[in-house]
Amino acid sequence: LVSMNSVSAQQNYVPSSENLKNRAWFEDSRFGVFIHWGVYSVLGDGEWVMNNQNFGLNEYRLLPDFFYPIAFDAANWAKLFKDSGAKYITFTSRHHDGFSMWNSQVSDYNIVKATPFKRDIVKELVEACREEGIKVMFYYSLLDWSRDDYLPTGKTGKGIIGRDSTQGNWDSYIQFMKDQLTELLTNYGQIDGIWFDGHWDKPEADWKYNEIYSLIHQLQPQCLIGNNHHLATFEGEDFQMFERDLPGQNTTGFGTSADQVGNLPKEVCGTIAGSWGFDIKDRKQKNFKEVLTYLVKAAGYGSNLLLNIGPMPNGKIQDYQQDRLLDLGNWLRKYGETIYATTGGFVTPTDEYALTRKANKIYIHIFNPNQEKVLIKDFVPEIRNISNYDDNKSVSYAHTDLGLEISLPKPIDKEFLILTLDVK
Ligand code: FHN
User: Fold this and answer.
1) Is 49 in the pocket of ligand 1 (CB under 6 A)?
2) DSSP per residue over 226-252, as a string?
3) What are the mean pLDDT values of the chain's consecutive 10-residue runs (424 residues total)?
4) Which atom of ligand 1 is nearest to the CA of 277?
5) Residue 421: phi, psi to the nearest 5?
6) Whole-angstrom Cα distance, residue 33 to residue 22?
7) CA of 197 to the centre of ligand 1 (A)
8) Can you give the pTM of this predicted structure?
9) Which residue segments constitute the domains of the chain, with CATH numbers given?
């Protein structure tokens, strides 16, 4: 598919060998932690609060003064991420409010210069994650609700008081982003991805992706580029992302339709809470089975899951969010072989099952084991044996006109059942 923005995409992009190697690592990793944390967290009303509550620019600019995360300990966070089984994190270096979570030299509206905390959170986080062997990617917002050069406003930001001028300076804004990305990719060692968001605010604009993507790949060839533009990928991107959705399902409008799903590594992102940024009155907390099903279904589509947490303004991660991550970690320690470094997508996952494959082993994850039988449609490989992953005991099966029918072992006192298929 040729997108309307293909003109500005990186021309004739040939990924470097470092980049291809990193794509392979990314595909194998299957699980990352997304972190939405910024000065918006202070208000406990999600990361869109500035726009949703029609803040004045000057009013919102009081927030950094209250950002003093007394309990923030990057080493603790990194340990939690490690224990969760995640292989990487994606951190909001700068969200739509335009606030930079590092010591940016091109914007004083940043964590070191504008908060009493004065510590470079990006630096601390990167270093702590590196210690634990967790790779780091940066979420970076293309859209900005604070800067004058971004004017006129796009689809969002119109209610923000002080954003009524139509006078912008697009070249200056693009240069600003390049300068910031250069900082992020120069001052913090190896960074394994840039995760863009906000294209949809000005879909007609010339985002100069040709220049921006080449700059990133020049500075750090292995750095993977993804862009949450909700479209088929543009040239120069290294992975495709699907927001709150499984590839090609597009149930939320933020995903991407089936014909826009390409061959690049895939990542779906979703939340443990109802929102991305900390929402103190959140009542949509997902339970363990829900997040686990999300991870397994994503793998069944051949995709990573980037699961979001929204740390509190004091630097703590809510207990239930920690619990979800730790429970995933425990599960992955036991069943990681059926998720990491597997392929998926050869049988479309359903609400009943998801299949992954590694060499001549296929794993069937059954979401509701308390039934007599399960029918897998469109199953082609020739089977030698099917067994229960937990105890290796063989289970019986039959090929029917409708597909592969497997009799489920009993009793199962667990939420999930995994079957191992030895195939030729
Ligand atoms: O507007 C953002 C939102 O705040 C959040 O960052 C998500 C994450 O995928 N992306 C945008 C919506 O598409």
Assistant:
1) no
2) EEESSSSPPTT---EEEETS-TBT-SS
3) 52 93 98 98 98 95 97 98 98 98 98 98 98 98 96 92 86 98 98 97 95 97 96 94 85 76 94 97 94 97 98 98 98 97 94 95 93 87 92 94 90 81 92
4) 4
5) -110, 125
6) 17
7) 7
8) 0.95
9) 6-338 (3.20.20.80), 353-423 (2.60.40.1180)
